[in-house]
Amino acid sequence: MRKTSAPLPTFIPLLIGITAISFSSIFVKWSSAPASVQGMYRLLFTAILMLPFLKPHWKELRALSIKNWLLLGTSGFFLALHFLLWMGSLKLTSVSSSTIILALEPVFIVIGAFFFYKEKTSAAAISGMVVAIAGAVLIGLGDIGVSRDNLLGDLLSVLGTLAVSVHMLIGQKMVARVPSFVYSFVVFLSAAVVFAVYNAAAGVSFTAYPGRDWGIFLLLAVVPTVFGHLLFNWLLQYVPASTISMSILGEPVGASLLAFLILGEAITLFQLAGGLLAIAGLIVFLNAGKFKSRPKSDIPVEPAHPAP
Fold it and tell me: Measured by CB atoms within 10 angstroms of the end CB, which terminus of the chain is less buried, N or C?
């Protein structure tokens, strides 16, 4: 079952994680490498960085059942699919348009959590979610793609958001069975393997990239992955996936601001107003979003297959 309380106030790791993942789109834009290569090395370098801390968990890793290995591998597959689609979308559309679509994640998570985990939320929390999503949509109103490439980028971001929602729902289930560190290590490594297979099959070069790109691969591993996704995986022990996904609504705000400061992408009045709305809705949700699960357990009787 999920643990009752984190060793520090939840908003602290949430704030760190949101800030860290906000840099992800900037790093992706900076690199000239294909999205599949960026994703592969991002996850591979993260797994390598985790290796020195794996020894205390070696016994737990070896004790994983075949069923758990399959679930972890599935989670890794959907994480890789998310990165492939979302990072690919950034090659076609703006940071604001791509990250704003990630605001759909709480909707997919809440729906999935209701069907698979029987989680419900209060009216106040739903109101906060609606306000935050409305604000997130407002951010991108002045930047909605109108060209064919931009529309394709928007579609890739939608599909990437669906993929990460599946990844998060599996993660919520798995961290109740295995330590979050073991979960993260196996998922990141399996996602890197998925990318490697994809790149090999597509004939994408593994090494033909300048030193600048290798530095960006490392930044992607350290900043948004270790201080973002790894931190969020750890938080799944204490809060539902729906709460974490709702908090990630802060990413469009942070990413749009960073894109303005670093990439020179303009912020419109719609985006500014939307950012304020998203933050207000997020505050309401985090204060009122107490999800209820079935009394006996957070984990349902095994569904056909739960949907990062």
Answer: N
